[in-house]
Amino acid sequence: MLIHFTVSPSSGVPPYLQLVHQVEQAIRLGHLTRGDRLPTVKEVARMVAVNPNTVLKAYRELEHKGLAQGRPGRGTFVAAEAADPIPEARLRELQQLLAGWVHSARAAGLDSEGMTGLFTAALHDTTSREAE
């Protein structure tokens, strides 16, 4: 299986959108490419313990965005490519740097929500400065 979905009931994001975001991210990072088959609705529903209609809604949203295409009797397939996929070695390097940051943040007393808030603020600040 090319993608393993997770759903966090406490995230405040509807489960179907969590699934959509995970596919978008996997495409953006080059983990999923055009022609890759997504897991069946039943597989995803079992994997994340949601109603199959939730998965259908996510897959319809992906089709609406042009990221996936359903093929009757065959499944749902990725219909998009990452604009500029990042090489796997560079992704691993960035992941290691980020893991070090997470360790430091945790040692400083931040929980997951605090880290998310700090990262989001830093991303926003950096993006705002680059736009100036």
Structure description:
By secondary structure, the chain is mostly helical. It contains five helices and two strands; from the N terminus they run αααββαα. It has a two-stranded antiparallel sheet with strand order 1-2. The mean pLDDT is 92.
Q: How much of the polypeptide forms β-strand, as a percent range?
A: 5-15%
Largest sheet: 2 strands, antiparallel
Count up the helices: 5
Distance between the termini: 42 Å
- Content-based structural category: mainly alpha
List keywords for this structure.
mainly alpha; 132 residues
List the helices and strands and how they pair.
Blueprint: H1 15-28, H2 41-48, H3 52-64, E1 68-71, E2 75-78, H4 88-107, H5 112-131
Antiparallel strand pairs: 1-2
Helix pairs in contact: 1-3, 2-3
Could you write a compact summary of the structure shown?
The protein is mainly alpha-helical and 132 residues long. It has helices spanning 15-28, 41-48, 52-64, 88-107, 112-131, and strands at 68-71, 75-78.
